[in-house]
Amino acid sequence: MFNNEQIKINSQYIALNSDQAVSLMIQHLRDSSTVHIAWNNQHYLFIPSDLNSWLDKDGIIRDALAHWSPSPTVNYEDRRFSRGDWVSELPEDLCRPIVFVNNSDQIAGFLSPFTLLKQVAAQKRIAESYLSTLLDTVTDAVTAVDRKGTVICWNEAAVNVYDIPFERIMGRTIGEHFDPESLMLLRSIDEGRIIRNMYHKSREGTHVLINASPVTDTNGHIIGGLATEQDITHLVKLNEELTSVQASILDNLPRKDDPFSHIDGQSNSISKVVRIGKKVAESDTPVILYGESGVGKEQLAKVIHLASSRAEEPFLSINCSAVPVGLLESELFGFEGGTFSGNSHHEPGKLELAAGGTLLLNEIDKLPMDVQDKLYHALKNQSFRRYGGHTEIPLNTRIIGATKHNLEELASSQHFSSELYYTLSIVSISVPPLRDRIEDISILSKMYLREFAVQYQKPIAVLTPEVLLAFSKYEWPGNIAELRAVLERSVILGEGDQIKLEHLPDSFQDHFATINEGDQGLPGNIYYENRLKARVTEAEEKAVIEEALQKASGNKSITAKLLGISRGTLYNKMKKHNLE
């Protein structure tokens, strides 16, 4: 397990040829030397204690070797050497020194069985020290049992999660403290199946995310099992607490006077954004907001505006990627008569309309270079001209730029005006993606569920532990915007006051079916799976599948997981029973 050092072999020996005299062998053994002889593609090693067996011999060495068996040989360059597999292949009645050779069958040294035993024991103690430290370091509960379910490993985290001290569980069967029928670890051993990321409620009041694997010996035989459990009880309780208040009460709670209270979350990353945003709001300096699509850059820009001295004035925005390139200049700066229609009509741009307030330039990296240059000079001179005009108009608008790209890199590669970049980037704020603020998902979900409950005249919905866990494991490529859309869909299509896995979009469910391939981590799956296995007639099989389909609201992915079969197998069985 831990190859911190190699076996230390003894390289002090005398090499003799098989055609040399026996007397030379006797002389070296009397001098307490170890002698090695390579003969007939075999290795022979003799130690001083072999002297008496040579005293009655004479002639040349190879004639005497016929009375000796070759020494056991190990190739130290073989990959198995570093793993230690070769030790188990040594003869049980080993009493002679072991010769170590390289890939060319050249001797490198030797070890006596006793010395080897001491070194193996020492390395075992070292490995145990590493393992003990590892078990004390990890924050997940770690449990290991033998084939009979006897607990042979129980770390400090397991003590804390289950409040069962070492002395009460070590050496005892795990079924004495837990219901054997619900233990995923025993199931992993019995079925020889690897379990990954499965939600599990092993005891009342304890919610965990479990990974379990059977432990096999070198012959592939299962000798026990090992499980790690991540305690997610606090996540489940937090979700329950946040959703326990009725929608009508929540809707009547006033917002704080602080506009930044509209940015929901308590993670360190979003707290940092709020902290910087509050400082920025106190000034009129331009700001650049960085972040992926859907993270809430526009919301942050509006909050900064509302917290500033410009709060009573307009807040306008332009999505630079949504406006045709040829119209961006007039959209931003306005236009004078005759520019488009040939008459004297003129139209103010967003810079002018937002006078005294704030203008958000979303996806600012999409601005054409000539418009970037004009904006830079407008900021520099604090005035601008409409497109086609000649009159200088004072600039009294705060500019906030937003982008998902690195403007510094774009400026360095001359894809963005370096002058405009340095003018705008006095202060920049990076808005974190949702996957980096997982702890905020429950808070955000509560907010949106309350909003949609009021909007669609429904009771406030509660996320089940499975959904909350699924949300925490999802990458959220669409960030907060995707979370909001998923929850709105679930509220519209859901029934009752719970959001379950089957209420989520098919693409969302397929994602979890892929990452949890082979898992049956849904509540009730053991019940359906055992019933399917226990059926004795085709009619009973059909009834079980129909019941599971109803439980999963017709969703094939969920149904397959409930039944413990693949979707392909489910489709075949449905076709057989005319359930399509």
From TrEMBL:
Q: Which Pfam families match?
A: AAA_lid_14 (PF25601), HTH_8 (PF02954), PAS_4 (PF08448), Sigma54_activat (PF00158)
UniProt entry keywords in alphabetical sequence: ATP-binding, Nucleotide-binding, Transcription, Transcription regulation
**Domain PAS span(s) in chain numbering:** 127-202
State the SMART domains in the record. AAA, PAS
Q: Which residues form the Sigma-54 factor interaction domain?
A: 263-492
Cross-referenced InterPro entries: AAA+_ATPase, AAA_lid_NorR, Homeodomain-like_sf, HTH_Fis, P-loop_NTPase, PAS, PAS-assoc_C, PAS-like_dom_sf
Is the keyword Repressor in the record?
no
The UniProt entry, under Gene3D superfamilies, shows: 1.10.8.60, Homeodomain-like, P-loop containing nucleotide triphosphate hydrolases, PAS domain
Keyword presence, Coiled coil: no
All residue ranges annotated as the PAC domain in the record: 188-244
* Cited PANTHER family: C4-DICARBOXYLATE TRANSPORT TRANSCRIPTIONAL REGULATORY PROTEIN DCTD, TRANSCRIPTIONAL REGULATORY PROTEIN
* Protein name (database record): Sigma-54 interaction domain-containing protein
The lineage, from the top, is:
Bacteria, Bacillati, Bacillota, Bacilli, Bacillales
